[in-house]
Amino acid sequence: MTAPLVLGFETSCDETGIGLVRRQTLLSDALATSSPAHERFGGVVPEIASRAHLEAMVPTVHRALSDAGVTLRDVDAIAVTAGPGLTGALLVGVAAAKAYALALDVPLYGVNHLAAHVAVDELEHGRLAEPSIAMLVSGGHSSLLLVPDLAQDVQELGRTIDDAAGEAFDKVARVLGLPFPGGPHVDRAATEGDPRSIAFPRGLTGPRDAVYDFSFSGLKTAVARWVEARERAGEPVPVADVSAAFQEAVVDVLTAKAVRACRDHGLDHLVIGGGVAANSRLRALAQERCDAAGIVLRVPSRRLCTDNGAMVAALGSRLVEAGVAPSAVDLGADSSLPIEVVSR
Ligand code: KG4
Ligand code: ZN
Does residue 275's CB lie within 6 angstroms of at least one atom of ligand 1? Predict the structure, then answer.
């Protein structure tokens, strides 16, 4: 008997992602984005995102099916992001997933977007060693996790106490006059800059600070002050150098704390997920530090780091395999779903 075919729905932010996964094999990953519609606002506008999900939903489902060469009749289970994320945006995905599940008479799994960012790595690198340490760095979250069982036991060791890593990238990009979302633009600008040109602060790295928590708000403010001082003095802002120095401060702290978490827990597997995991310097420094510490590093390819439907299908597939109970028909969206709740 072939393994169940899982259709995944992702609508937590501005990407409408529909993915198809069988066991840990990625069959298709269709994406529609409303990102350009938000650009002039400098951030995602929830109402615009919800409407765009509604319009993109059915065509994106069809595209995922045709890319995989299957039909709706072949689908054995449905997974959908139930949170965290923008309520209105999540609701479009949950309503659509429920409708398909009811019409096809297949089980529905409401899953955690954050755990899905970790699960997607299994599509490229096979089953995760358990327990592993996972670092989740996205536009809305930054957390260090202990993962004894990705299907049902995810524990948070620490998190950001203010801005998420991606949020810091986006805000700094704005200060530098780079487009939204800023992460990829800062990443690109930084390749031409000198990371040692400016000494920006490393948040929560003092001897008395919480070892697994992050803070990026002080860094963001330090960058803004530095840029303002330049502008006041009528001097040009060295965008490449500021980008490189800021980026180095973020990834230095992230990788140091992730390696520390592995060491403290006696674990030699680290997986990094979420949009910021697409950052080239984060990937390089994490690799360097993991190699030095004898840790096996796993990071999904860039395309799968940012929001997509395959990650939801990947986690759904994991839940089906583990025999986790499906969600009830009254499944709702939870904009602040805690990271420990893998499915609901
Ligand atoms: O995971 P994601 O697609 O959406 C959320 O769940 O938040 O993450 C989006 C975040 C944005 O803040 C974006 O600027 C950041 O990921 N990002 C990056 C890069 N690519 C995306 N940050 C740094 N470097 C990148 N290359
Ligand atoms: Zn995400």
Answer: yes
